[in-house]
Specification:
This protein has 166 residues and is mainly beta. The protein has two helices and nine strands; from the N terminus they run ββββαβββαββ. The longest helix has 13 residues.
């Protein structure tokens, strides 16, 4: 299909693609505690990830973010979920979530924040990014080969995040 037939017009809903990665080791999950000076998610725990850059695939973006933010390069990733986020604008967000297992090796902190192994049974004890309270237990329950989950995020009239699994 030619480029001009892709249906991209200024009046259509668009999304900004992002990748988000959750690395596990046994019953532990590696989360990034946002640096205290970050504009978004300061001192809150999240997976590792970021924006998909022009010209790169989503999985390539996830691998790049792992390397940039943690120094991790020897992990096989698998797609475990997608999420669309309607922030009330003409442009939304689409997150592609990956899982991987990390048994041996080193990683390092970055300007994004510090990395910590957290036992899955203790996740509720940590200040997680808001949506992780809902989605992370579901993602961590998946086994390799399970169908990816699909979520849709929106905001109610009081600007509270609403997360629905499709």
């Amino acid at each position: 299909m030619p480029r001009e037939e892709q249906g991209v017009t200024a009046d259509r809903y668009n999304v900004i693609p992002r990748s988000l990665i959750f690395i596990t080791r046994g019953n532990d999950v590696l989360l990034l505690k946002g640096a205290p000076n970050k504009r978004l998610w300061a001192n809150r725990y999240n997976g590792i990830g970021g924006h998909v850059e022009r010209g790169e695939g989503v999985k390539a973006s996830a691998l790049r973010e792992l390397l940039e933010e943690a120094g991790i390069s020897e992990v096989e990733l698998w797609l475990c979920a997608t999420a669309t986020i309607d922030a009330g604008q003409l442009t939304g967000i689409c997150i592609f979530m990956y899982r991987g297992e990390f048994q041996v090796g080193e990683f390092y902190d970055s300007e994004e924040g510090g990395l910590e192994w957290i036992e899955q049974s203790r996740l509720a004890d940590y200040p997680l990014v808001e949506d992780l309270q809902i989605i992370l237990p579901r993602l961590l329950a998946l086994k390799r080969g399970d169908a990816p989950l699909s979520f849709h995020y929106s905001y109610d009239l009081q600007n509270r995040l609403q997360v629905k699994q499709d």
